[in-house]
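$ run holo --ligand "2-oxopentadecyl-CoA" --emit tokens
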Amino acid sequence: SHKFWSTQPVPKHGETIEEDGPIESNTPYDQIRKEPYALPKEFEWVTLELNNENELNELYTLLTNNYVEDDDAMFRFDYSGDFLKWALQPPGYLKTWHVGVRVSSNKKLVAFVSGIPADIRIYDSHQHLVEINFLCVHKKLRSKRLAPVLIKEITRRSHLQGIFQAVYTAGVVLPKPISKARYYHRSLNPKKLVETNFSRLPQNMPLSRFIKKFKLPAETSTPGLRPMVEEDVPEVKTLLNEYMSKFNFVPVFKTDDEVKHWILTRDKVIWSFVVEDLETKKLTDFFSFYYLPSSVIGHQVHKTINAVYLFYYAVKEADEKAIKGRLQGLIKDALILAKLKNVDVFNCLDLLENKLFIEDLKFGAGDGYLNYYMYNWRCKDMGSDKVGVVML
Ligand code: NHW
Ligand code: EN5
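-- output --
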């Protein structure tokens, strides 16, 4: 099995790890292949220009109709055009890593894969690498071994930039995850979630009681909580990098520009809030969540589920025993703010310190998992509570 992955520099399933480090050494520039890999003859490579509204729309349409679904094919991610620009054009992004495949005869976009530059720390090792996301092959072209060609091509284009490691996540199990996280869901609009079969009404529970169970206060309760503004960026950068020191696999935010890009509120894409100490005026905490609706496949009434996903946050709390209460208060406020934005469900993974609030705030376990991978890097695997990287 794994006709493709067995040829790649990734650890084998069941392999035990002695020491952290690359699996293969870097290829010298003059030995890196300069021509794109061959596609089946009816297709051609294109680099997408996401600043061109038509090309952005083509990508949006490909993904909306063909990207990730749950195991029962009831829901499909519906990343918006603005979201895709946010996800794919961070500071230092390279257009050459927005890789498309078109049908030569009619130019229809039928496949895509992307990379963005990122800085991460894995255990004690800091790396500048590429994050791979949005790998997609049109439904009509599945199982023709196009995905390995896309992966080899984005690998080649990474090598040409002097990058030999990558991070990626997937619902499927491949050789070999460094961690596995589970999705959790907090109902904000229980009636709609039941109507779409996103959640099942428990046996013998009337809808009225189910709705009551998920009721939330009308207003937030953390003193000093307010929307984040651009002036907060330097302090949020410090808060976030300090908080991340607790974990083994984390993003490293090097510049204010990166924090401005990744954390500052963008309408219908990401929302971020800070807590300002009312006496010192210093920021003590922040949290953010991104908006990623899902199409409801083949439903008569409901076309989309409005979902948000918990993104990065930081809690400044010297007393380890006080963190649980503090974080619960913050995320409860996040639920209230999301509800005010007409969100139907608040999602998160069981990474970071999310296990401290998942049960008490009435999140329920989903049927989806997210596996974390590194390419060309060997290291010990870790529990999801040691993971700090949140991918879109
Ligand atoms: S995970 C989301 C991936 N996308 C979707 O699930 C969308 C819906 N599905 C599809 O579009 C987030 C297709 O089913 C895809 C596969 C395109 C997934 N990752 O062409 P074939 C990401 O974007 C392997 C990696 O016939 P297909 C992360 C599979 O194991 N490999 O299949 C992306 C098999 O290999 P094997 C995957 O169904 C990370 C081969 O593909 C995979 O028509 C990419 C079959 O190919 C997945 N999600 O197309 C890796 N799904 O060895 C980046 C299947 O088992 C690596 N496969 O025979 C790093 C690169 C950069 C390095 C830089 C130094
Ligand atoms: C890479 N960046 O499976 C992204 N979603 O649980 C690719 N389930 O929404 C990675 N099947 O459990 C993709 N409702 C991996 C995720 C793919 C999408 C996926 C799961 C995550 C999901 C929902 C719907 C299930 C429909 C049937 C689910 C139950 C919620 C319920 C709420 C009330 C309390 C109990 C749980």
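-- notes --
DSSP finds eight helices and 16 strands in the chain.
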